[in-house]
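Two entries, shown back to back:
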Amino acid sequence: MKDLKLIDHLAALSRLSFEGEEKERMANDMESIMKLMDTITEVEISEADYPLTAEGGMELLREDEIKASTPVEEILSNTKGKLYHFIAVQKLMD
C-alpha cells in the first residue's frame, strides 16, 4: 500500500524533498509505521486498569515528606560572594 503521492504531500508540508530510492525508503518506513499503529489498536486496555482521571491515579504517588533543609548560613559560607541572604553573581548583560 505504498502511496507515493502521500509521501510527496508530507514532504511538501515539512519542506523536505525525497527523490528515487529515498522516496521508496520513506514509503516503506511509513508503511511499517502504519502496520505498527494497527497492531497497537488491537491491544485491549480497560479503563479500570489505567484510570484516565487525576483522582484515580493519585494513590500511585508517594506521600510528601517534610525534611529540614540546609541552613542558609552554611550554604552562603561556601560562596565567593553574598549579598544579604543571597548568592551574589557577576552581572553578565546590561
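entry 2 starts here
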Amino acid sequence: MTLELQFKIKNDPNLFRYLRENSYWYKELNRNPASIKQMEFEMRKRYKMTTVDKIGNIKKSIEMVRTFMDVLS
C-alpha cells in the first residue's frame, strides 16, 4: 500500500474503521491501490452516507417536526 494511500485512510475515521472491520481490503489495496474508490463506495453504502440516505434522513426529520407541530396545534 502506498504511503499516500495510508495517509488518506488514516485521515478519514470512517474509512479507517471500515478497513479495520473488513480486513480483506488490506490485500486488495496492496495489490491495486486504485481500488480505494470502490472501497470508499462500499463504505458509504455500509454507513449510509450516500446522497439518497442523507435525503432520507432529512425527510424523516421534516416528518417528525411536522408531526410534532400537528400535536401542538
